[in-house]
Amino acid sequence: MIVRRGRGHSDAQGADYSLHTEIGDLRAWIDHLEQPVHLVGWSHGGTISLENAAQDARWISGYLRPCASSVR
């Protein structure tokens, strides 16, 4: 499970919490695993997961979106 930057037990990482930055964090984590993953996104994490899957699905084996805002 990923803990988003500056949330949970993670430390604040500067001021850049943009969608682009958080997608980059997710993509770096997935690339590090080097194996297919099944994404489950909740709330804003759902938006991050959905946008990541739309941009680069090479390591995505499945996606579950129980709750996410619309992607614009």
Largest sheet: 2 strands, parallel
The radius of gyration is 12 Å
Mean pLDDT figure = 81
Label the overall shape.
globular
Task: Indicate the low-confidence ranges by residue numbers.
Answer: none
Distance between the termini: 26 Å
Order of helices and strands: HEHE
Strand order of the largest sheet: 1-2
Q: Helicity range of the residues? A: 25-40%
- Residue share in β-strands: 15-25%
Number of helices: 2
- The helix-and-strand class reads alpha+beta
Instruction: Tell me the total number of β-strands.
Output: 2
Write up what this structure looks like:
This protein is α+β, with helices and mostly antiparallel strands and 72 residues long. It has a domain at 36-72. 38% of the residues lie in helices and 19% in strands. It contains 2 helices and 2 strands; from the N terminus they run αβαβ. The protein has helices at 19-33, 44-55, and strands spanning 37-42, 60-67. Helix 1 (19-33) packs across helix 2 (44-55). The longest helix has 15 residues, at 19-33.
